[in-house]
Amino acid sequence: MGFKSYCFKKSLWLFHFGGASCNNCDIEILDCLTPRYDLERFGMLLVGSIRHADVLLVNGSINKKDKPRLLEIYEQAPKPVLVVAIGACGCTGGIFAEGYTFAGPVDKIIPVDAYIPGCPPKPEAILAGIVKLLGKN
Amino acid sequence: MSKQTLIPIGPYHPLQEEPELFKLYCDGEIVKDVKWETGYNHRGIEKLAEQKSYEEVFFLVERICGICSTSHPFAFANSVEEIVGVEITNRAKYIRSIIGELERIHSHLLWVGLAGHFLGYNTVFMWAWKYREPVLDLFEMIAGNRNNYAMFKVGGVRRDIENQKIPAIQEMLDLVKKKTDLLVGAVMDDPVIHARTKGVGILTKQDILDFAAVGPTARASGVDVDVRRDDPYAAYPLVNWKVITAEAGDVFAKAQVRLLEMYESISIIEQCLAGLKKEKEGEVDVKVKHIPEGYGTGRAEAPRGEVFHFVVSDGSNSPARHKIRAPSYTNIATFKKSCVGQSISDATISLAAVDPCYCCTERLAVAIDRQSGNRIMNAKEIINHSASITNKLLQHE
Lengths: 137, 397
What we know:
The structure holds 2 protein chains of 2 kinds.
Chain A: H1 3-7, E1 13-18, H2 24-33, E2 45-46, E3 55-59, H3 66-76, E4 82-86, H4 87-92, H5 106-109, E5 114-116, H6 123-136
Parallel strand pairs in A: 1-2, 1-3, 3-4, 4-5
Helix pairs in contact in A: 2-6
Chain B: E1 5-9, E2 21-27, E3 30-37, H1 45-49, H2 54-62, H3 71-84, H4 90-118, H5 122-143, E4 152-153, E5 156-157, H6 166-188, H7 191-197, H8 205-211, H9 215-219, H10 227-230, H11 251-278, E6 294-302, E7 305-313, E8 321-325, H12 328-331, H13 335-338, H14 344-353, H15 358-361, H16 379-396
Antiparallel strand pairs in B: 1-2, 2-3, 4-5, 6-7, 7-8
Helix pairs in contact in B: 2-3, 4-5, 4-11, 4-14, 5-6, 6-11
């Protein structure tokens, strides 16, 4: 077992960074925590600070004002950290990619470990994505 | 003046799912002033709309806000149809109203949950979001997606609700109604919620008029405004319903208005379903071949209040100008009144009470100098700046 997989062996804590999004992915991430999907049964928890988190969930297109803040949050994260880009906007910029404030999709700014496409991805898709990511590491 | 402490909420705060920065200036426990900073969510949608065809703009305005993703296409459709002067079929009107009201139910349930979360009462959060799932299942059945429905187009709707689906929808609605009863009973009779929300964040009738607040925020303070009744569109003139108002203006009154509105929404949907049965299947779309020159305004009542769209057409394939005003734009300004003078622990629920939606609001960003607090550029300077760039290019050539 390598160091990285040892770090992600037990319960993962998630930090959610909502970029310039339409709010749908944010709602679906919260939806994962509620009784029908209940992410917390896997020991996963949404935490308030990146310094406590193992996984950084990023959704929404990143605009010029968000970009330095995303970089700062990534630098504050205890390493190793897994970065998951959620939604069409997180993966590619989606419908907002042509906008004048767009500052590049997430993977142009920080390294991304998993992409979960969809507009918005269903909570099942988010769960499946995170489970696959854990299987890989 | 005593010493004030600055307490920032945001921009990436666990309490809010959207990026937004609130600066609370506190003296001890009491909030003395509140300022808010936006721009974290600005995407340049109005400019993007000018690059897209009318059919594509529907997909774009749907993604202004994920929670009210019907009200923006609704207002846009109203404004474009005003330019064209087309009257849509009754069946399309009913379907539009059904989608709009289903959205109101899911949005209000979402708000009740989040309000519980803001109070630190997570049971309400879990309950409300659990009962929201059947509504999303209904959307999935009708439109194929849980959140962005893509139902609207100029001249009607994209897909029909077939008559054979109506019993299944009715069954699901009955379930939603039963669960709503349960939730309303639990929230309205709860002594903890009474203690935390009554007399908190009061907005008087005069405050509402001063800030031009709309939607449930205004209706909870006794201001009787509702675009569905005042400027009728879609199937709202064809069905019986009433506007819910309350007088107190506090957080509890806002919760009351939203919870009771859900019953009205269910009743509207039931009447629309009955209306659907009378209309011929498949007649949901009037062909619109050309959008003439002119301008049109469209209004729609979103779960949070009035959405306003203004579209200028130059006779081409895409809008020449598209202006959007969302309800939260005026509602957020009421924070200055509702938070100031209260203890900091009540500030969060006062912020949440108007159901602010920041991704709806962020249409224009103005740069402000951090030291002096002045605007770095006003409209005149932007035009001069633009002209100077053009001149430079001309000289270069």
